[in-house]
Write a structure and sequence with these properties.
Strands 1, 2, 3, 4, 5, 6, 7 and 8 form an eight-stranded mixed beta sheet that branches. α10 runs antiparallel to α11 and α11 packs antiparallel against α12. The protein is 53% helix and 22% strand. The chain is α+β, with helices and mostly antiparallel strands. The longest helix has 34 residues. It contains twelve helices and eight strands. It folds into two domains: 188 residues, 2-Layer Sandwich (Alpha-Beta Plaits), CATH 3.30.70.1230; 55 residues, no CATH class.
Length: 316
């Protein structure tokens, strides 16, 4: 305005006025950009703050153009975790105790999931659904999911001891993990919407989780997840025909990082694989014999009694 007025009256403004105008315009532009950036960060925090770790939120804020809330197809890893026999646990607690137990459980498990950059999809009763690979893409999504599940298994054992000392039942968990192509994005209605994943790969992970009870193991993963984990030791569990799937699914249990193995574990896993090979070759008597030896070697391992029972029931 001052420049226009000065032009109209053919007056040259002093240098101080020119510098002041430039400074004011620069400040207004910086302030506008600040408000736009702050508003954008607030929207991102509102959308993802409760579902992803803070470091991921900060990464989204730095590169918002790389994140889409619209539906898209990605190769990702999805995770289901359930407290086993929770109905029996709930019956032994009053409402306040039940709330305290669940809140403590969810706090501890979510902290671990966030440590490995997982995205919380939802809490369903006593269950947790999470995924890796969105909203921020990552190369090691399968390994992060499996490492998180191993840490969660250790933590649930610690929590179980704490709860038992309080006179509460000690919870046990089952985890199912699968890696594959799935759809991810905002899905729902105009009344309620959620950032979630859907697809056959998601359904398979849920079905795998339900099989942890059958094999009496805390964690089961698919072959596709196993193939993307290069720093973890696994044992093969079984090959099963999952409802709704044409191809049989090979199941594995993650045990530890490769750096944590020793000669005793190597020897055990060698014997385990020999038993699995006999089982896969339909050598029933030989498989039972080998599983019985392994049961004696590892009396606290529920998998071997479970496999012996499966074989005996199939071949009475």
């Amino acid at each position: 305005y001052l420049y226009i007025t000065a032009y109209q009256v053919q007056t040259i403004l002093p240098m101080e006025y020119s510098l002041l105008i430039i400074l004011v315009l620069f400040s207004m532009n910086a302030l506008l950009n600040y408000f736009i950036e702050t508003h954008s960060k607030a929207r991102i925090l509102q959308a993802f703050g409760q579902f992803v770790p803070l470091k991921v939120v900060e990464e989204i804020c730095r590169h918002p153009d790389q994140v889409s809330m619209d539906g898209e197809s990605r190769i990702m890893t999805v995770f289901f975790c359930d407290l086993q026999d929770f109905s029996n646990v709930a019956e032994q607690l009053n409402p306040k105790q039940l709330s305290l137990l669940l809140n403590k459980y969810f706090d501890e498990m979510t902290e671990i999931l966030f440590r490995y950059r997982g995205t919380i999809d939802k809490y369903i009763g006593d269950s947790i659904m999470a995924f890796w690979g969105a909203p921020v893409a990552m190369q090691d999504h399968a390994q992060n999911a499996v490492l998180a599940s191993l840490d969660m298994s250790k933590k649930i054992s610690e929590l179980s001891d704490v709860f038992i000392k309080r006179g509460w039942p000690g919870p046990k968990m089952g985890v199912g993990i699968n890696t594959g192509r799935m759809s991810v994005g905002n899905m729902g209605s105009k009344y309620r919407i959620a950032y979630t994943v859907i697809g056959d790969s998601v359904n398979l992970a849920s079905r795998i989780e339900s099989l942890t009870r059958r094999y009496r193991v805390p964690i089961l993963i698919s072959e596709s997840t196993r193939n993307d984990c290069h720093d973890i030791v696994f044992r093969e569990i079984d090959t099963v025909q999952v409802k709704g799937k044409h191809n049989a699914a090979r199941l594995f249990q993650p045990l530890c990082r490769k750096s944590d193995t020793d000669s005793d574990m190597d020897e055990w896993l060698k014997k385990h694989q020999q038993a699995i090979e006999a089982y896969n070759n339909s050598e029933t008597e030989e498989a039972i014999r080998r599983f019985k030896i392994l049961k004696t070697m590892r009396p606290k391992d529920g998998y071997y009694p479970a496999m012996i029972k499966i074989l005996v029931d199939k071949n009475p």
